[in-house]
Amino acid sequence: PARDDAPGISEIRTLYTDAIGAARDSIYLENQYFSSGLIADAFADRLHQPDGPDIALVSRRTKSGWLEEASMGVLRARLYRGLRAADPQGRFQLYCPHVPGLGDACVNVHSKVMAVDDRLLTIGSANLSNRSFGLDTECNLVIESRGDPRGAAGIRAMRDRLLCEHLAVTPDALANAMAAHPRLNDALAALHRPDGRTLQPFVPTVPDDIDAALPDASLLDPIEPIDAEEVMARSEEHTSELQSR
């Protein structure tokens, strides 16, 4: 973030929004969090377009503990509702890695990966959260193919290795599904196995009373430093709004 002696650096934020805006066919992501309105807006812009890409986001089904569930989980559910409304063709899908035998537990997705078509791959420390894009210090590695078929093959192979791991299928089975179903989410649906290791589509939900009681992302997931007095002022404003309902 910006400091008294240096301006803010927002390379990763710009990378994500530019890459999402430039996607042609598919965007595949793995991330621990999804709470950034900036990213949701970038997704929504593409979902409104008739020729926009499929977007597949892999994350954990439940957050780690009640605090995350009542903060980052609430923000994710809100963004998901907005994207569903902006997605008449059903091109956005949220997945969790399903492993039989875990019961109520789930795979703890901690990766931060994005593959855009076979043209760009980024792996690093940045979450899809406001904190990562404006408040925390992060580092991402980015690979672009730039028309080089070797680079494109490498990016595609990396994405496909992850998909094969999650879906418990061979590279040939994935390639066949991709050939039969050009849309990414259609191919993943064709490979879905309800009784085995797979990528499970899911809808994040939170109770209405918890959703209403919690403030917006400016407090739960700030994109810039905020001082204690501002936090108190915003909290009091939110409390007053709740009391007036």
| Major beta-sheet overview | 7 strands, mixed
Order of helices and strands: HEHEHHEEEHEHHHEHHH
What share of residues are in beta strands?
Answer: 5-15%
Overall geometry comes to: globular
- Unreliable spans: none
Give the spatial strand order of the biggest sheet: 6-5-4-1-2-3-7
| Fraction of helical residues | 40-55%
Radius of gyration: 19 Å
Total strands: 7
- Helix tally? 11
Q: Return the average pLDDT rounded to an integer.
A: 87
Structure overview:
There is one protein chain. This protein has 245 residues and is α/β, with parallel strands linked by helices. Helices cover 45% and strands 14% of the residues. The protein is built from 11 helices and 7 strands. It has helices spanning 11-22, 37-47, 65-69, 72-85, 130-135, 149-167, 171-180, 184-190, 208-213, 217-220, 228-244, and strands spanning 26-30, 54-58, 92-98, 113-116, 120-124, 140-144, 198-201. It has a 7-stranded mixed sheet with strand order 6-5-4-1-2-3-7, sandwiched between helices. A hairpin with a 3-residue loop joins strand 4 (113-116) and strand 5 (120-124). Helix 1 packs parallel to helix 2 and helix 7 crosses helix 8. The longest helix is centred in the middle third of the chain and has 19 residues, at 149-167. The chain is globular and about 55 Å long. It starts with 10 loop residues before the first helix and ends with a helix.
Summary of the model, kept short:
This protein is of the alpha/beta class and 245 residues long. 45% of the residues lie in helices and 14% in strands.
